[in-house]
Write a structure and sequence with these properties.
Elements lengths: L1 H33 L25 E14 L3 E10 L2 E4 L2 E4 L4 E8 L23 E5 L6 E3 L2 E3 L4 E3 L7 E7 L4 E6 L2 E8 L4 E6 L6 H4 L6 E6 L1
Parallel strand pairs: 1-5, 4-14
Antiparallel strand pairs: 1-2, 2-3, 5-12, 6-9, 6-12, 7-8, 10-11, 13-14
The structure holds copper (II) ion.
Copper (II) ion binds next to loops.
Length: about 230
């Protein structure tokens, strides 16, 4: 304890010394300024922040997170669920709001490392997105080699389908012909537009859990375009 308090007082002295030095620098800067040199101290604060969608010309960003540790009830235990990533954190996916007639950039962050059986054949195939593709970044194709010179980033890949064995969940809206297969432990980016306002049913088409499959805010819900 003695060594600790001695260290503390040593640190206190160091901090005081640093403060005095800084005060000296402050004085020097003030003198320099008076000497005719102007030092700009303007701080630029960006007016747009990630996650906001203030401009109608830019895509509306919708971020969904598939988390696996939410407890459904005492019988079902932990089950996977879709969440909307909102300004204050994860929110319910029971009603997902987005604008109609505007390009949507959908980002799905999937923490689930387990695959699941597809309820419908071919639901590993992408549909309804721009170019019929999704962009997938995942554990095994990003930062895939690390040598002495550092990490080699491979980024990700554009896919028009996901191998059946790799599908964990899907984000599917049949009335929009939208089907986005989500591989295990991956981040998926897809672009699409909802051309007609309305309320559409979304759901996951893998057998990822009996109860969540049919429960709003877990693996199904409404997509509200307005
Ligand atoms: Cu699912």
């Amino acid at each position: 304890m003695k060594a600790g308090s001695s260290l503390t007082s040593g640190l206190t002295i160091a901090v005081l010394a640093a403060a005095l030095i800084l005060a000296g620098y402050g004085a020097a800067i003030a003198v320099g300024g008076a000497g005719g040199k102007t030092v700009s101290t303007t701080t630029v604060i960006s007016t747009t922040t990630a996650g906001t969608n203030s401009s109608s010309s830019s895509p509306f960003v919708l971020t969904l997170v598939i988390a696996t540790n939410s407890v459904y009830n005492s019988t079902e235990g932990q089950q996977p669920a879709y969440f909307v990533l909102g300004p204050s954190g994860l929110q319910s996916s029971a009603n997902i709001s987005l604008p109609a007639n505007r390009l949507i950039k959908l980002v799905i962050v999937n923490y689930d490392d387990g695959n699941a059986t597809l309820e419908v054949p071919n639901d590993n195939v992408v549909s309804g997105t721009t170019n019929g593709t999704i962009f997938v970044a995942s554990n095994d194709n990003i930062n895939s080699s690390q040598g002495a010179s550092g990490i080699v980033v491979k980024g990700g890949q554009n896919l028009s389908s996901v191998p059946v064995a790799d599908v964990a969940h899907t984000f599917t809206v049949p009335s929009l012909n939208l089907n986005i297969p989500v591989p295990t432990s991956s981040t998926v980016v897809a672009y699409f537009t909802v051309s007609k306002s309305g309320t559409y049913l979304w759901f996951c088409e893998t057998s990822c859990g009996d109860a969540p499959m049919s429960t709003r805010g877990w693996m199904t819900g409404s997509l509200v375009a307005s």
